[in-house]
């Protein structure tokens, strides 16, 4: 493109052609891990679970998204007729025997022949049941933000399975110096209001950056 055409384009965009700040690329763009984790968190806002909204994003080796999912009831099951409670005298009156986790749905929603060799981005470290699915699907690594249930048996079993299968799992750092990543994790560990969630989601959609960019969900279980 000639300099004259560049000047005309800048004028059409309302940007002075002589502005030196517009002659270089942006430096505060999202890195790939931030982008994929943000997609996972945004998809979590589709979840109807009142206490826990979790999303997962599967990415192939070319950094292309091949699967997205969030936690919810199985297809064809009226979620108004199933319980969403976390506790009850009878376990059948809780959500746990019925709900499908984000990892399962992301794998089932894949838009490719398979997800072998892909990476999964998910807000919470996967449970043992999801670890089985991850292994069987051939996913090579898991990138997560929070491991808040690290000490419960299901998570211990999950790590054991992933280790035996040779699947790497790592906590995402949202910035190279770790400062913003630390702030994000600390914010994640503190339960946030739904209003906060909506505001941050809107901020992402309209392109505004925040220090806690990917804190778009407040999963609690």
From TrEMBL:
Catalytic class of the enzyme: hydrolase
Alphabetical GO biological process terms: nucleotide biosynthetic process
Keyword Zinc (UniProt): yes
Enzymatic reactions: dCMP + H2O + H(+) = dUMP + NH4(+); 5-hydroxymethyl-dCMP + H2O + H(+) = 5-hydroxymethyl-dUMP + NH4(+)
InterPro entries documented for this protein: APOBEC/CMP_deaminase_Zn-bd (IPR016192), CMP_dCMP_dom (IPR002125), Cytidine_deaminase-like (IPR016193), dCMP_deaminase-rel (IPR015517), Deoxycytidylate_deaminase_dom (IPR035105)
Stretches for region Disordered: 1-24
UniProt cross-references to PROSITE patterns, sorted A to Z: CYT_DCMP_DEAMINASES_1, CYT_DCMP_DEAMINASES_2
Domain named CMP/dCMP-type deaminase: residues: 31-169
Pfam family, one: dCMP_cyt_deam_1
One GO term describing the cellular component: cytoplasm
Needed cofactors: Zn(2+)
Bias-annotated ranges (Polar residues): 1-16
CDD domains cross-referenced by the UniProt entry: deoxycytidylate_deaminase
Record has Cytoplasm as a keyword: no
Gene Ontology MF: a single term: dCMP deaminase activity
Alphabetically ordered keywords of this record: Hydrolase, Metal-binding, Nucleotide biosynthesis, Zinc
EC number: 3.5.4.12
SUPFAM superfamilies cross-referenced by the UniProt entry: Cytidine deaminase-like
Family: Belongs to the cytidine and deoxycytidylate deaminase family.
Function: Catalyzes the deamination of dCMP to dUMP, providing the nucleoside monophosphate substrate for the thymidylate synthase/TYMS. Also, part of a nucleotide salvage pathway that eliminates epigenetically modified 5-hydroxymethyl-dCMP (hmdCMP) in a two-step process entailing deamination to cytotoxic 5-hydroxymethyl-dUMP (hmdUMP), followed by its hydrolysis into 5-hydroxymethyluracil (hmU) and 2-deoxy-D-ribose 5-phosphate (deoxyribosephosphate). Catalyzes the first step in that pathway, the deamination of 5-hydroxymethyl-dCMP (hmdCMP).
Name of the featured protein: Deoxycytidylate deaminase
Source species taxonomy: Eukaryota, Metazoa, Chordata, Craniata, Vertebrata
């Amino acid at each position: 493109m000639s300099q004259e055409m560049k000047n005309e384009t800048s004028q059409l965009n309302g940007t002075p052609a002589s502005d030196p700040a517009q002659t270089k690329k942006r430096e505060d763009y999202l890195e790939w891990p931030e982008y994929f984790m943000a997609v996972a968190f945004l998809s979590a806002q589709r979840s109807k679970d009142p206490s826990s909204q979790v999303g997962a994003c599967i990415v192939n080796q070319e950094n292309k998204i091949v699967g997205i999912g969030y936690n919810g009831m199985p297809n064809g099951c009226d979620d108004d007729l199933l319980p969403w409670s976390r506790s009850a005298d009878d376990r059948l009156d809780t959500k746990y025997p019925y709900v499908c986790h984000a990892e399962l749905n992301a794998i089932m929603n894949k838009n490719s022949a398979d997800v072998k060799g892909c990476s999964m981005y998910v807000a919470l470290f996967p449970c043992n049941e999801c670890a089985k699915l991850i292994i069987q699907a051939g996913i090579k690594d898991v990138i997560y933000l929070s491991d808040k249930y690290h000490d419960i048996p299901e998570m211990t079993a999950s790590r054991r399975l992933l280790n035996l299968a040779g699947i790497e799992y790592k906590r995402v750092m949202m910035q190279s110096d770790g400062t913003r990543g630390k702030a994000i994790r600390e914010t994640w560990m503190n339960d946030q209001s739904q209003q906060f969630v909506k505001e941050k989601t809107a901020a992402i959609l309209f392109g505004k950056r925040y220090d806690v960019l990917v804190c778009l969900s407040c999963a609690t279980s």
